Structure to design on (1008 residues):
């Protein structure tokens, strides 16, 4: 019981401890839930499972709002049991993806900084239950989140009821690293008083009306570890290209060797880039990002990174052990914020971030598709990439130039879906090189992209398309009959290479 | 001379008055110019013409940066004389458009709030001469703009040299209505301290190093009047639909009858909407927009609008007479700001604007094309629509459901160019009705759009496409072979209607 008193320090709440099953029994068919969790970190791990059990023998469909993707296979489970009406704003689970693309339920893919505005202004269905993971509840009923904040702040303030999952597997040392801030309603809002990544602007937990806390469930289970892919030859080369570009920016006097606050999307390329910084001359770096992955902790260990702000910490299994058993070492150099603040246009533009995100495909004019395979099938969602790329000092997109053993060129005549248009894409990096598109008109961009970024096996084919298109004129010349022909070729023949069929 | 002393109150500058020809003689082939001017207002009217004269008998090509489109046929002239290397960030002239689409020079189409960041951080070529229209220069060398600010503030601070055109046809009463504010460099920047449309945060003119002022030219010529198209039956109906939507928002408790600060793009639909507000119950309105057109002054006259902030005043000939001969009446209820401030994401999101812009075409999932006809030919440019739609409380897009006597459907299976993707488009309005897309997954949006917004002559054809696409699955089902077939049909047969050819 010692631990219970440490974890629930508000006397009024001690009698609200319940089992996951009891808490789940309060949730009815048709309700809307707001779950903590962002990229497998800080998600609730008991009540969703108890709920899924109920769904096995009664009709039970809910709307699920989260920060981003959930760990612990919750998204998988909810999709398998067909328990969803609507899911937003992001996911990254293979089973859920299948359900989305089959049209089994509605998935609203949203800029991650936007969901909170819709909740605050009642555009979305109100949340019946917020279910939030916590390390503790303080003397005055303040809920302290764990390894992510995501949308938990706005859920806690606007949900009708709250269920807290206190996870004793999460170190109590997490208390104190959160900075909870909720902007006022639009129209009554003050400037967000943050000008540097390490500014503290809020409070260490979520102050809520304690009457809304209907139950507290204890759990003891670590976050799902991330499945980081180690840097390979190509991602290492991409990191080098990106670092070369940053060096040129320093030479041109546009950056110093402290660079600017760094944001990086999740994934192996991003991780490789950050690994690359380890051996670079850059120093005193700051990170202002959504997710901290393994490499940021290596950079903290090497004193390359001075401070890192995020809304979630997502680590591999090994790294999780190391970081959380030595957490004292990192506490003063880390801060967790709501995703609305980590991704806020106001702050990204003000600080002038360097933003690095992954493209699924891009076209000759610099439009980027981050989400829809062959224009139709959802991968994960746009996530924060739009929040960052649009407002950053540098919107950088990285991708390998080919996929599927060369049967797909990541650079196509015409993207099959647009998440980031030419106005928001500053620099493209592939293993072939980088293209700095800033200040260039579309026709200037084509040449740079083909020369610097396209894989040699597709270079001629892409040039041929462009040369033919140019005869038709326009700001962005295209041959509409052939614009999507590479995708169509892939769907029919399993390759975008024209030699297999389709002489142009 | 009385008027000269009124207009140039800084003694040090009295000997810098020169002819337009002399000022133009300082400009060399290959230079970069920053011209004042935004949507035909406050553009310089003498030096560009003198420069164009020179171009008749010597090789002379320049880069031209502006606020937005120029009046006085300057864009036309520069295109005709083939005087351009690069033009940014916006234009709206038929001759220039032709030159752009022929590839005669490079046009960089940019979010209007972004150009200043590129100038400030030396991403763009440095400006050799800023040529700025003014009503006066104050005792301490502060340049007072005229009917627009556009990018003049950033030009004045970062150009190597400045030429001022003092336009005595512009009323001296303009002095005092400008609020000049330049954000610090990114990374050293404070919050922009504006929370309401009428907040004054800067100074009434542009403080510059007077040594940079190389010459002052006097002119006496009004701005080109706007060619406003009067509301027609359809735009009146569209305005009514939009007002119905706003009423529903009030009913739902998401707005009050003061609404929220209004932004509206330029053009006849926007003007009609604002006319519609004249007869509505809404009151005490605020405008926070780029351009003020005629209708806003009618709303000011009727005391419907309390305050209007903008970066440019663009009026028809009649209205110009009326407004500027009674300017005392409006001075306290107007403010002009740099386009970086009128269009700043930080401020648009903070105040929660209602943003109304025109779509060229849109697709069944809510992606909007504002710029490229048939995916290739530039109309004008994205302008501020992206700054606003992405960050506003409500991103509303308006368009008539058909064009070219019904041979074009403005709503197509797949847009041929994306300026605003599904994440940034909240509400669509045509003369058929409105579709509120907020919180809807793509498959839910299709039904609303087809039912509420598509013209009856295309409804069946669009449903047929979607029904066939659905069989292939996906988050946004498409048939890639047919996605652009409507455009291709139009190019071949002059119509998007399938009965002419192409049985599906």
């Amino acid at each position: 019981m010692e631990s219970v008193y440490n974890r629930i320090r508000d006397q009024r709440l001690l009698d609200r401890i319940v089992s996951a099953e009891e808490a789940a029994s309060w949730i009815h068919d048709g309700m809307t839930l707001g779950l903590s969790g962002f990229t497998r970190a800080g998600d609730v791990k008991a009540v969703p499972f108890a709920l899924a059990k109920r769904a096995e023998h009664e009709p039970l469909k809910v709307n699920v709002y989260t920060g981003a993707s959930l760990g612990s296979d919750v998204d998988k489970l909810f999709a398998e049991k067909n328990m969803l009406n609507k899911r937003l704003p992001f996911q990254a689970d293979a089973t859920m993806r299948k359900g989305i693309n089959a049209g089994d339920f509605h998935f609203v893919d949203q800029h991650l900084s936007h969901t909170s505005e819709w909740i605050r202004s009642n555009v979305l269905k109100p949340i019946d239950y917020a279910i939030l993971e916590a390390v503790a509840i303080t003397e005055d009923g303040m809920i302290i989140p764990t390894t992510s904040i995501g949308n938990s702040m706005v859920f806690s303030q606007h949900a009708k009821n709250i269920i807290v999952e206190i996870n004793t597997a999460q170190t109590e040392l997490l208390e104190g690293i959160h900075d909870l801030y909720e902007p006022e309603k639009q129209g009554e809002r003050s400037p967000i008083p943050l000008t540097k990544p390490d500014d503290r602007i809020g409070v260490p937990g979520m102050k809520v009306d304690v009457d809304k806390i209907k139950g507290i469930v204890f759990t003891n289970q670590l976050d799902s570890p991330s499945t980081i892919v180690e840097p390979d030859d190509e991602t290492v080369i991409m990191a080098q290209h990106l670092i070369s570009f940053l060096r040129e920016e320093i030479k041109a006097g546009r950056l110093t060797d402290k660079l600017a606050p760094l944001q990086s999307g999740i994934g192996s390329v991003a991780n490789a880039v950050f690994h690359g910084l380890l051996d670079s001359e850059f120093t005193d770096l700051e990170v202002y990002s959504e997710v901290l992955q393994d490499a940021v902790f290596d950079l903290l260990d090497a004193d390359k990174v001075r401070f890192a702000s995020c809304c979630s910490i997502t680590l591999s299994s090994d790294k999780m052990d190391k970081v959380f058993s030595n957490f004292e070492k990192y506490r003063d150099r880390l801060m967790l914020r709501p995703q609305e603040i980590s991704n806020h246009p106001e702050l990204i533009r003000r600080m002038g971030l360097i933003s690095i995100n992954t493209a699924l495909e891009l076209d000759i004019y610099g439009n980027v598709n981050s989400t829809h395979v062959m224009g139709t099938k959802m991968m994960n969602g746009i996530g924060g990439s739009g929040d960052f790329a649009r407002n950053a000092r540098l919107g950088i997109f990285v991708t390998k130039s080919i996929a599927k053993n060369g049967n797909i060129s990541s650079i196509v005549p015409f993207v099959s879906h647009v998440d980031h248009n030419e106005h928001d894409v500053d620099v493209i990096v592939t293993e072939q090189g980088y293209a700095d598109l800033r200040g260039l008109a579309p026709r200037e961009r084509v040449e740079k992209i083909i020369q610097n970024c396209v894989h040699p096996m597709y270079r001629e084919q892409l040039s041929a398309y462009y040369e033919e298109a140019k005869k038709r004129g326009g700001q962005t010349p295209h041959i509409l009959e052939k614009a999507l022909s590479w995708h169509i070729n892939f769907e029919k023949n399993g390759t975008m290479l024209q030699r297999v069929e389709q002489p142009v």
In short: The longest strand of chain B covers residues 161-167. Residues 500-504 of chain B have pLDDT under 50 and may be disordered. The radius of gyration of chain B is 23 Å. Chain B has 18 helices and 27 strands.
